[in-house]
Specification:
- By secondary structure, the protein is mostly helical.
Length: 154
C-alpha cells in the first residue's frame, strides 16, 4: 500500500518535472514548422521569378526585345525589393508571435511550479503535524513513568 503511494507520488513528480519541457518542445516544433513552411514558400516565389527572367532573357532576338527586357528588369527589381520587405515583415511577425507564446508558456510553467511548491509545502506541514501529534498520543506520558519509579523506590 505504501509502495503504491510512493510510486504514484514519484510518477506524478516526474510528470510534473517533464511537463514544462514537453510544452516547450511542442512550441519550438510548431515554430520551426511555421518558419520552414514560410521559407519554402519564399524560396519557391524567388525561384519562379528567377526562372521567368531567364526565360525572358533567352527569348531576346533583336534590339527591341532587349530594350523591353531591360525595362521589365527594373520593374522586377522593384517588385523583388518589395517582396523581400514583405517577407522580412512576415518573418518578424512570426518571431514576435513565437516570443509571445514562449513568454506565456514560461509564465504558465512558473505559476505551476509555484503552485506545486506551495502544495508540497502544505503537504509536508500537515505530515509533520500528523507525525508529531500521533506518537505522543501512543506513548505513555513521562510523568506517569516517574511517578511509578518514585513508588518503587520507597
Amino acid at each position: 500500500m505504501q509502495q503504491d503511494q510512493f510510486f504514484n507520488a514519484f510518477t506524478e513528480q516526474t510528470r510534473n518535472f517533464f511537463e514544462p519541457m514537453r510544452k516547450l518542445n511542442g512550441l519550438m516544433l510548431d515554430n520551426m514548422e511555421k518558419m520552414t513552411q514560410f521559407q519554402l514558400e519564399s524560396m519557391k516565389r524567388y525561384s519562379q521569378m528567377g526562372t521567368e527572367r531567364l526565360r525572358a532573357a533567352s527569348d531576346i532576338k533583336n534590339p527591341d526585345d532587349m530594350r523591353d527586357f531591360a525595362a521589365r528588369q527594373s520593374e522586377l527589381m522593384s517588385e523583388l525589393s518589395q517582396q523581400m520587405m514583405e517577407d522580412a515583415r512576415a518573418m518578424t511577425e512570426l518571431s514576435l508571435a513565437f516570443r509571445d507564446e514562449l513568454q506565456k508558456t514560461f509564465s504558465d510553467v512558473s505559476q505551476q511550479a509555484m503552485d506545486q511548491a506551495n502544495s508540497t509545502a502544505q503537504e509536508a506541514e500537515s505530515a509533520t503535524k500528523a507525525s508529531t501529534s500521533s506518537p505522543s498520543s501512543s506513548k505513555p506520558s513521562s510523568s506517569s513513568n516517574s511517578s511509578r519509579g518514585g513508588k518503587n523506590n520507597s
